[in-house]
Description:
Blueprint lengths: L15 E6 L5 H12 L5 E6 L7 H8 L23 E4 L9 H4 L3 E4 L12 H19 L10
Helix pairs in contact: 1-4
Amino acid sequence: MAISPASGRAAPPLPRLIFVCRKNSARSQMAEAFAHRLGDGFVAVTSAGLEASQIHPGAIATMAELGYDLNHQHSKALADFRPEDFDWVVSLCGCGVSLPEAWLQRSGFEDWDLPDPAEAPERFPEVRDQIHDRVQQLLTRFVHTPQPPRTP
């Protein structure tokens, strides 16, 4: 547990959040990037896929339009994580039905069921913006202060 510099007392642990989609190549990567920036210091975040793959070039490009660099992120497999290490699980692709039950029993679970922009690349900006708005709404549950706007 970290020590809060303001009070000198132990700070409560950060909520732990994981975004999940099929291949951890687009939607969950964008959600992770938004949550890192918008929730910096308020939430611990990562992402994973039912299987690992490569980050989609369309996700990299559409996030770069807003000043986010996905080149430092990498695709991760859900099997490399333990459900008990997370408070919140967010499925972005409707894959919640495919998750092992232990993942569905976290204190928070949501299934956003967003379209896969890899199947229709012209939808990357639209899906990116939907993810931003949903991540921002989710983070307000952890922090009761206004979040910064989407642009850097």
